Amino acid sequence: MNGAGAKGGTTVRDALRGWGGVTAMAVVCALVALVALCLPPLTTTAQNTNATTHTAGTKAEEDCEAPEKQTLSPSSADGDTIRAIKNRTGEKRKLVVGVDQNSYRWGYRNPNSGKTAELEGFDIDLVHRIAKDILGDPDAVQFKAIPTDQRIPAIQDGRVDMVVRTMTINCDRIADVAFSAPYFKTGQQVLAPKSSPVEGYDDTLADRRICTAAGSTAFAALEADQKDGKLPASTDISTTVPNQLDCLVRLQLGEVDAVVTDGALAASQAAQDPTVQLKGDAFTAEYYGVAMKKDADDLVRRVNQILVDYRKDTANGWQASYEKWLSATLGKDAKKSEPPAPQYLRTT
After folding, report:
1. Distance between terminal CA atoms of the chain?
2. How far, rounded to the nearest angstrom, does the alpha carbon of residue 153 sit from its chain's CA centroid?
3. What is the pLDDT of residue 245?
4. What is the pLDDT of residue 63?
5. For residue 191, what are the β-bridge partners?
6. What's the burial of 344, exposed, middle or buried (CB within 10 Å: 0-12/13-18/19+)?
7. Is 252 helix (H, G, I), strand (E, B) or coil?
């Protein structure tokens, strides 16, 4: 093998030291993901009839410069999409949400939480808040494990009502799905072994192998930067995986030399494994949003209203969830991760 993984002299046994909890979690997650992804597609997500706002959104895509601002103003009103969700009966009367189940502190099944290994994390807290507002019950949720590269297809096919899965809002994606206002600020960053000579997103990545998740903003950034000469031509970016955590496994096994992913996720992975660390500063500024079907205008507006209230709720809202799940890895100053006051599309 070549690259930092080999040059640093780190063996597989050394690299995996202290990582038993993560391995156990990954096994649990893999089994549950197999079951979740085998569930039949949903067909109850109805189209919204608000043609005026949808037309405004289409124009916004064409002129996209600040994708995090291409969303609809908040509203608590029920429309066709929300009524269809509320009209589900029995066990099906749940909000169906695509999530991750192996991103530590964001959406993951804690193998130490008991036999059920319930989903926990910052994204999961937000899902429960949305379910409580729409259906009156924070637990009225059917979670579906969705790989990174299946987030948009799952929405478009009606398998889920929304995706809450550290999903970055960008111009390409708003052509396919609708986003809420941002609920978290982050940026792409490099994760590598502590012993690695890689220093960050710079020339030290020459002749190194980088892993990214397929369909991620990380891979898109690397591909564009290599084409523009901002990333060394000798950097190997060919390794992509369905789920972002798979990159950490590849890194631990010495199959790649570095991982590029959202800094918020990378910090959690560094907390899982003391042999790796963040290298350099974030080289992009990005925002996570809740993704929904393109014409589900009423659901987008409702989620935006929920986010307004969630951020105002100091006792049980955004700040409390940050302190519980993320302060240990991202620091106590939540302001660095809190998105600016939302801006919405002007519609007539």
Report:
1. 60
2. 15
3. 85
4. 60
5. 259, 278
6. middle
7. helix
- Among 49-58, 245-254, 271-280, 307-316, name the one with the lowest average pLDDT: 49-58
Other Cβ atoms closer than 10 A to 274: 11
| DSSP one-letter string for 19-66 | -HHHHHHHHHHHHHHHHHHTSPPP---PPP--HHHHHHHHHHHHT-S-
Residue type, 41: P
Both tokens of 106, joined, read 């964001």
Distance (Å, whole) CA 58 – CA 235: 37
Least confident range from 56-60, 189-193, 245-249, 327-331: namely 56-60
**The tokens 């929405």 sit on which residue?**
155
Sheet strands (E) in the chain: 95-99, 102-103, 107-109, 119-120, 141-145, 162-163, 178-179, 184-186, 188-193, 209-213, 236-241, 258-262, 276-279, 286-288, 291-292
CA separation for the pair 337, 6 (Å, rounded): 35
pTM above the 0.85 mark? Answer: no
Mean residue pLDDT across the chain? 84
- Percent pLDDT > 90 in the chain is 73
**pLDDT confidence tier of residue 346, bands split at 50, 70 and 90:** low
Residue in 192, 202, 278 with CA at minimum distance from that of residue 4: 192
Measured CA to CA, the distance from residue 336 to residue 106 in angstroms comes to 17
Angstrom CA distances, 252 to 89, 197, 287, 311, 343, stand at 46, 16, 28, 37, 41
Strand 178-179 relative to strand 102-103, pairing:
unpaired
Q: What angle separates helix 20-37 from helix 245-252, to the nearest 10 degrees? A: 140
d(Cα 76, Cα 84) in Å, to the nearest integer?
15
